[in-house]
Amino acid sequence: MKTIFKNTVAGGMLALLATLTPAGAFAAGLGVSATGSVSGTPGGLGAKIGVNVCASIDTRADKFVQNISDKTGKFGTRQSDRVAKIDQNRQNRDEKLDTFRQNRDTAHDTRYAALEAKATTDAEKAAVAQFEADVNAAVSTRRDAIDAAIKTYRDGVDNLIDTKFASLDAAVSTLSDSINAAISKAKDDCASGVAGATVLADLKASIKDARTTFQSNRQDAQIKTELQALVDARKKAVADAVATFKTSLAAATAKLKAAFGADAGASASTNGTSTSADVNANADVNAGTGDNQ
After folding, report:
1. SS (H, E, C) the chain
2. Which of 27, 96, 192, 233 is most exposed, with the fewest beta carbons within 10 Å of its own?
């Protein structure tokens, strides 16, 4: 999960921001350079600026707004695609974990059968039965704890994603509204006879402000710190579940050895070691159920 937002959907807005630079395509389309000069017009600069800005603003503004609309539409699509990918990754990992656990259960049954075959006295048979019950209970407790850790983690991630997307949607909406307002003002100024150079300067300043505000809002929507806290909490929960299981397993194995006496050392120890290997592998599978891969 460490890199789920390394290439965040907000990064997809950078292309949009590139069109919002003070000396961007919009101003150029009005026939005015970044410095406010008009190419190929040695005289009558003020008049030319007024004509170029106000005569072209309707056409250029419509194209500019449409460009923003297209890019924000793609932005929303990327949000949906990323959520769908997360859901698919979770499903794949859940299926993998289920298969792993089924295989481990089968292996446990095989080892239990081997222990049962070694038990000859009533005391030994009772000890094996108790060992199996203790280990099964410990495995169940461990799995429940790990499943709960995964659920808590995923719920937290979902909440962060919802919050992040809501913030980004608001940032995009504010950006769009600000630009539309700036263009509307420029049109009104042209209709009111405001000098073209002034119209252009005000428009460029407004677009720059909108861009700066959007960048700030985008940074505020970052969730890296909160996300890492969820990762750390999940890892700790999994580690605690594994530690508890190992303690329970050690206790069950000790009781089994005591019941079998000196002859039980090899069989009980072997079974216990195999079960320990199971918990380590199982923990690794669970700990890897992040949404970033």
Report:
1. CCCCCCCCHHHHHHHHHHCCCCCCHHHHHCCCCCCCCCCCCCCCHHHHHHHHHHHHHHHHHHHHHHHHHHHHHHHHHHHHHHHHHHHHHHHHHHHHHHHHHHHHHHHHHHHHHHHHHHCCCHHHHHHHHHHHHHHHHHHHHHHHHHHHHHHHHHHHHHHHHHHHHHHHHHHHHHHHHHHHHHHHHHHHHHHCCCCHHHHHHHHHHHHHHHHHHHHHHHHHCCCHHHHHHHHHHHHHHHHHHHHHHHHHHHHHHHHHHHHHHHHHHHHHHHHHHHHHHHHHHHHHHHHCCCCCC
2. 192
Q: Cα separation of 100 and 139, whole Å? A: 13
Task: Tell me if 279 sits within 8 A of 142, measured CB to CB.
Answer: yes
pLDDT tens, 106-130? 999 999 999 999 999 999 999 999 9
Q: What is the pLDDT of residues 92-107, one digit of tens each?
A: 999 999 999 999 999 9
**Contact assessment for residue 145 and residue 237, using Cβ atoms and an 8 Å cutoff:** yes
Task: Calculate the alpha carbon distances from 245 to 181, 236, 278 in Å.
Answer: 62, 14, 11
Interatomic CA distance for residues 253 and 127, integer angstroms: 10
CA-based radius of gyration for the chain = 33
Task: Taking residues 139-160, report their average pLDDT.
Answer: 95
Residue 84 burial by Cβ neighbours in a 10 Å radius (0-12, 13-18, 19+): exposed
Q: Which two tokens stand for residue 42?
A: 């040695």
